Amino acid sequence: MIVIGSDHGGFALKEEIKKHLEERGLAYTDVGCHDTNSVDYPDIAKEACEKIVRGECDKGLLFCGTGVGISIAANKVKGIRACCCSDAFSAKYTRLHNDANVLCMGGRIVSAGLAEMIVDLFLDTEFEGGRHQRRIDKITAIENEQ
Length: 146
Ligand code: RB5
Description:
Elements: E1 2-6, H1 11-24, E2 28-30, H2 41-53, E3 59-64, H3 68-74, E4 82-84, H4 88-96, E5 102-106, H5 112-124, H6 131-145
Parallel strand pairs: 1-2, 1-3, 3-5, 4-5
Helix pairs in contact: 1-5, 2-3, 4-5
The chain binds D-ribose (RB5).
């Protein structure tokens, strides 16, 4: 199960990506927002990311105007590794090397076509493990020191 969410700045792109997920037959739950009225992206990030850490969802797709604010908020939730991404290479490698569980994009930055490609790479690429697991463990250790 994928959790998807956005603020008003990412709303239009979120709706495009929902259609793409449906075309692929992938299940998602949408934590909002549900229109273009202004909302605060940390609220959306928190609700979505808590679904992941509770084990209700495996991965998250989050959108705001730039992708930056919502990725900063998502990364404050313990257990979340969120990548703000505008290119295909980063989308693939944040899965291979960082085992990222949340992808963030900017609705005012990334076109729908590119966003679909980025989403597909993110969802379809497996974590490589090996030496990268040691680095993830060090990220988790930093988290646990706070
Ligand atoms: C909202 O106007 C905007 O600040 C937000 O969508 C995002 O870009 C923040 O990083």
